[in-house]
Amino acid sequence: MLTRERPDFRTVDGWAVGLLLQAGAIHKCDEHGWAKDRADPHARDEAVRIAREAPLAGLSSEQAVAAVRDVLDSVGDTCPECK
Predict the structure, then answer these.
(1) C-alpha span between 39 and 51 (Å, rounded)
(2) Which of 1, 9, 21, 31 can pair with 14 through a Cys bridge, CB separation 3.0 to 4.6 Å?
(3) 38 within 8 A of 26, measured Cβ to Cβ
(4) Tens-digit pLDDT string for the chain (83 aa)
(5) CB atoms within 10 A of CB 35
(6) pTM of the model as a whole
């Protein structure tokens, strides 16, 4: 029986979150797991560069960059449960 390896993500947003974590642009709250913005412009630029140069299969470079920016726009710098 052959099995296909499943990707770590199931949505475009999941891919973008993974890319942002890898680039160091966001991190997760240790206690609750919410994504938090690191406010690191170099990491953000790196994430956008990676998205542009190696977009998710089925996305254009522009769509991949837009997905990364959409996720960045939705992430705050504090965990909503830690307040």
Answers:
(1) 18
(2) 9
(3) yes
(4) 455 554 556 799 999 999 999 999 999 999 998 999 999 999 999 999 999 999 999 999 999 999 999 999 999 988 888 87
(5) 19
(6) 0.84
